[in-house]
Specification:
The protein is mostly beta strands. The chain contains no helices and 20 strands. Strands 2-5-8-11-14-17-19 form a seven-stranded parallel β-sheet, with no helix packed on it. Strands 3-6-9-12-15-18-20 form a seven-stranded parallel β-sheet, with no helix packed on it.
């Protein structure tokens, strides 16, 4: 898979934004960072859409960060899709642990990808496993096991 393969194009909105900012301590490798992003952490093999903020010492790997996402400091995100406008607090870990099939939809969420739906707020120091779907904000839960889901429906 090659981000620059002309047969595999990425199309998206191109809003008027200021240029992206990458701090002197940031690291960005094999990623697409669009305008309007602020990166203080590390981004590897990922796509980060406009308006996203990635805090100091945070690490984004093999993930898609949708527009206007806020990621706190010291947060690690692996193999995840973070929906538009989501906020992930400081010292969080997303997409970690063993791979277990998702209990809610194993035929859809079984490849190790964690999905956080648009507009969700994840509290500081929360750990979220692999194949997890988060569909409502998390305040008092600090650990979500791989394969679990938290939705607005009956959990």
């Amino acid at each position: 898979f090659d981000l620059y393969d002309p047969k595999w194009r990425i199309y998206g909105r191109n809003p008027i934004q200021p240029p992206h900012f990458a701090s002197k301590n940031s690291q960005i490798k094999k990623s697409i960072i669009t305008e309007g992003c602020t990166v203080y952490g590390k981004v590897y093999h990922s796509v980060v859409f406009y308006g996203a903020y990635i805090g100091e010492n945070s690490e984004i790997v093999n993930s898609i960060i949708m527009p206007n996402v806020r990621i706190g400091n010291n947060t690690k995100i692996y193999n995840s899709i973070i929906g538009e406008g989501a906020v992930i607090g400081d010292n969080c870990k997303v997409g970690v642990g063993d791979i277990k099939p998702n209990k809610m939809a194993p035929n859809i969420y079984s490849s190790g990808i964690t999905v956080i739906i648009s507009g969700i707020i994840i509290d500081h120091e929360t750990t979220i496993g692999k194949n997890v779907v988060i569909g409502k904000s998390i305040k008092d839960i600090k650990y979500i096991e791989s394969g679990d889901s938290i939705t607005g429906e009956e959990d």
